[in-house]
Every structure is written in structure tokens, then in C-alpha cells.
Amino acid sequence: MKRNLSAEARQMLEERIIPFWLSLRDDENGGFISRVDYNLKRKAEADKGTILHSRILWFFSNAALATDDEKLRKAADHAWAFISEYMIDHRYGGVYWSVTAKGEKKDSSKHAYCQAFALYAFSSYYTLTGSEEAINEALSIYNLLETKSWDGKGYRENFTEDWAFNPDNSRFCGEEVNAYYTMNTLLHIFEAYSEFYRATGRSDVAASMKRILGIYIHTIYSPQKHRQEVFFSEDYTSLDAITSYGHDIESSWLIEEGARLLDDKTLIEKISSISTDMAKSVFSEAYDSEGFIINENRKGIKDRKRIWWVEAEAIEGFLNEYRKSKEEKYKEAAVSIWDYINKYFVDKRSSSEWFSELDDSNIPDMDLPIADPWKCPYHNGRLCLHLLKAD
Question: How far is residue 204's CA from residue 214's CA, in Å, rounded to a whole number?
Fold first, then answer.
């Protein structure tokens, strides 16, 4: 019998992801409760991260657009109200890294990755509501990224509250590798620009997107290694031997989806070729027939942990490759990962969604939360929203 992934994704949304995140609405302080531990204990006093709240805003905006459900639109309105009042810096521009549970400024630093997710969310909220305030804030962040972060070669990443460059990027790289540029931040700037371009059709944004894709083609992507480099010095020397399978498969479909928005056939064909090469490499190196892909390979040592977002992005990437190549192995891999997620990642306890991480015996890590500033409804929610349109 033919699988109906669309119906299964709708069930995942309606029974797991949407109810869980709606239940975290904080009507006392605003925004959403930002930490739920493994034992499903809610930490109402936890700081509220702008990345998490931007991803919540993006998710509910797009879920409302997909379903025309008024309660989801209200959830998006609630997220926007908190972000616009407490997380946007109305003096220096951009968004803070985090605020307290009550909305007081906590970490006022400006990181390009954080700005990108705000731009991403504001663009979607504008598409849902037509809010001029949201699209004006989106334009402000775009302009800040282009004037403060872009340095003529790439996007510098870490800044103080008043936008002075801070070369300490250890938040994203760890102490051992202090990268000047990172693949991950560039990817999500491109993703945000793609969403902003969908919402506005601005020619300057299209030009910025093409410029970023040029960096991918000539610098980020390694044709010899069939993957992306991850961390870079100021002159774009690669700083560590990492194959991030999750980011490779995520990039494979995200950069191609964004490239398809642009009126440049040659560029689209080049990005599609890179996308295929990375998807093939992840399939051959990281896909396990049990139905998952492993996390990464660092200096020749494979990390076989299963990460919630990696598995979600693998389905997106393999389905993208299947649609292009019609090779059944990619569709079969995507379906097998979906089944693996339902078997092992979905938390069968009531009022929960997915575990964060599984070990090589498929056991969840009890030290990791169900929700925190990074564990969000973005990767799995986006997957399900895309699967709603599956054949």
C-alpha cells in the first residue's frame, strides 16, 4: 500500500509538535517558556533566546499559512509581540542574543546567525499578516548584515550591542577553533535572505543571494571532498577536518531551493550539481540501513550519535535528490528515516514531541532537554509542513 506521508506529517503536527509548543505559551511574562527538561519539567524562569523565539515565530507563521488555523496565527502574534517589545534593539538596531524570562536584556551581543533567524521569522510573519512593522524590521536587519557584517569577502559574525566587531566566535566554534567565518552562519544568512526575497522580491536581496552562492561554489563546497568545509580563517583557510553530515544534507536542499528563486539558469544548474554531490556523499558515508544518518566525521573518527535535527534535514535532502534523480534509494532512505523517527525519536509520553539525541543503541540522552534555546519547532516543524505537500 502506498504510504501517505502527507497524512502522517499532519498527524505529527496535530498530535505532537503543535500542541507541545502551544502549551509553552507564557501568558504571564510573554513569549514562550524556553526550557523543558527530559522529565518534562518546565523552567518558567529560564532565559528566553532570540533564536528560539524567532524559530517559534517562523513555525507558527508558516503553520498558520498552511492550515488557516486561527489559533496558530494567534500564537504567531504572541511570539511577535514579545520579540518586538523585548528582543529588538530599538537604539542600535538588530536583535539581542537573549533576554530574561520577563523580557529584561540579558545577553545584548549581536551575532549574525541570530540576526539571520530574526530576519527569516519577520519575513514569514509579514507574509502571514502584512505587518509593516515586521517587514520594516526585516529590512533593518538586512541592511545591518550588509553594512556591519559583510566585509567584502564574507559575513563577520560576532558583534557587541552597538555593533563593534568582536573576533571571539567561540560560541559557535568552541575554544579550540575560533573561526572568523563559518559555513553554518553563511547558510542561515542565505536562508533568511531567501525568505526575505520571497516576501519582497527586492533586487538587492537577489544580488546578495547570488553573491553568497558564489562563496559556496568557490569556497565553502569542496568538490574533492564532496562536502562543505565548516570553519574558516579570515583568508578562508579551512581550520578543522570536519564532515558535518547534518549540515551537508541540510545545505544540499536549502541552497538549491533558494537558488531556484533566482533568474539565473547557469547558477541554478551549478548549485543543483553541488546539491546532488553532497546528497550522494551523505547517503554513501552516513546513512545506515537501520534508518538514520550519523552525526559527523571529525578527523577520520565517525560520531554515530543520532541528532533530532540531522534526521529531519536528511529526509528533506534525500527527497530533494529523489525528485531530481528519480533514484528510488533516496526516497526509500527518506521513508526509512521517517519511520525511525517515529519509532525512536518521538517521545511517547503525553504532551511531548521529539527527543534531542539518541546513542548507538537508540537510547535517548536523558541529560538533554525536550525544549531549550536550540531545541525548537524549526527543523521538525518545517519538515512536516513540507511533507504536507508530498505526493
Answer: 15
